[in-house]
């Protein structure tokens, strides 16, 4: 939260101690977008006195620069997840298992997922796992989908759900870096997501720009579509439904990317190095290096 970061930055300055804050989201839900005189003062304090700002994605880093944070303040450290030693196989079936896992909030655009699922007309089932203020509206919308949709509510352990799915879908208008997306990737699931925030870093950082309206882009580790584009999302679901080979190749690439960039151990090591550097204590770095 911007207010907490500003207060910590000022306290750190007065105490002569380094202070690190992390940008938790980007786009329309970014703390940096909050307006008003009080928030302007908080932004100014955090820009001036924060020692480092952790940006989880390229978009987060760019937003920090745009709001006046100095290049030397910004550190790129993504979210991390546990990557299992092996992943469960999934038996071939004409019945597709598609999963959304996350909050049922407006910016998550689960309504778009339901609309795309209806438009894709794939054989199978869409599972929506999570809770939030949009649930009642989404349940009503699902009744008109003409396709099987189930709601699971809050899921304490998402691994069994993700391990049994064919496709993970994320249609958010704004993201920091979705842990649910990374968890699905770690399990070798094929993923399709909107071209926002950390979704791009995870699935297709080489693409450079969102695909045209109505079209999906095949990234190096998953499919990406333009924000708010139900037509493209439906087309991407159809493409994945038609080709088990495409699902398999993207799932393997997603898992390899998690192993290379998003392992929890490697991310923890990045934070250890950052804190040790700020404290001027190289000997504080412990544990295996990535």
Walk me through what this model shows.
It is globular and about 65 Å long. Mean pLDDT is 91; it is low at 284-290. With 290 residues, it is an alpha/beta fold. It has 11 helices and 10 strands. Helix 5 links the parallel strand 5 (124-129) and strand 6 (149-153). Helix 1 packs across helix 2 (37-49). Helices cover 42% and strands 15% of the residues.
Helical coverage, percent range: 40-55%
Helix/strand/pairing category = alpha/beta
- Based on DSSP secondary structure assignment, what is the total number of beta strands? 10
Radius of gyration: 20 Å
Main pleated-sheet profile: 7 strands, mixed
The helix tally amounts to: 11
The SSE string, one letter per element, is HEHEHEEHEHEHEHEHEEHHH
- What average pLDDT do the residues reach? 91
Question: Judging from the principal axes of the Cα atoms, what is the shape?
Answer: globular
Termini, distance in Å? Answer: 30 Å
Strand content: 5-15%
Order of strands in the sheet with most strands: 6-5-4-7-8-10-9
Question: Residue ranges: pLDDT <50 for 5 or more in a row?
Answer: 284-290
Can you give me a brief rundown of this structure?
The protein has 290 residues and is α/β, with parallel strands linked by helices. The protein is built from 11 helices and 10 strands.
Q: Strands, helices and their partners?
A:
Elements: H1 2-15, E1 20-23, H2 37-49, E2 52-55, H3 58-66, E3 74-76, E4 96-101, H4 110-120, E5 124-129, H5 135-142, E6 149-153, H6 159-163, E7 167-170, H7 179-186, E8 190-194, H8 197-203, E9 216-218, E10 223-225, H9 230-242, H10 244-262, H11 264-279
Parallel strand pairs: 1-2, 2-3, 4-5, 4-7, 5-6, 7-8, 8-10
Antiparallel strand pairs: 9-10
Helix pairs in contact: 1-2, 4-9, 7-10
């Amino acid at each position: 939260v911007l207010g907490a970061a500003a207060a910590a930055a000022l306290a750190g300055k007065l105490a002569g101690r380094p202070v690190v804050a992390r940008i938790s989201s980007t786009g329309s839900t970014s703390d940096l977008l909050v307006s008003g005189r009080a928030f302007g003062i908080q932004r100014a304090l955090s820009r001036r006195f924060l020692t480092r700002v952790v940006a989880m994605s390229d978009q987060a880093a760019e937003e920090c620069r745009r709001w006046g944070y100095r290049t030397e303040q910004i550190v790129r450290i993504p979210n991390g997840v546990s990557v299992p030693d092996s992943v469960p196989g999934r038996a071939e079936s004409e019945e597709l298992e598609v999963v959304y896992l996350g909050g049922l909030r407006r910016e998550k655009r689960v309504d778009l997922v339901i609309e795309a699922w209806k438009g894709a007309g794939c054989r199978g089932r869409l599972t929506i796992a999570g809770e939030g203020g949009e649930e009642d509206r989404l349940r009503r919308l699902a009744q008109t989908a003409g396709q099987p949709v189930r709601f699971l509510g809050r899921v304490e352990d998402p691994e069994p759900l993700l391990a049994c799915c064919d496709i993970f879908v994320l249609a958010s208008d704004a993201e920091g870096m979705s842990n649910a997306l990374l968890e699905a990737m770690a399990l070798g699931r094929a993923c399709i997501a909107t071209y926002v925030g950390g979704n791009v870093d995870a699935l297709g950082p080489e693409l450079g720009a969102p695909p045209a309206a109505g079209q999906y882009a095949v990234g190096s580790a998953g499919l990406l579509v333009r924000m708010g584009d139900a037509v493209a999302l439906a087309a991407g679901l159809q493409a994945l439904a038609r080709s088990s080979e495409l699902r398999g190749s993207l799932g393997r690439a997603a898992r390899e990317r998690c192993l290379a960039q998003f392992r929890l151990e490697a991310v923890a090591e990045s934070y250890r190095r950052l804190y040790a550097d700020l404290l001027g204590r190289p000997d504080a770095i412990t544990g295996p290096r990535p």
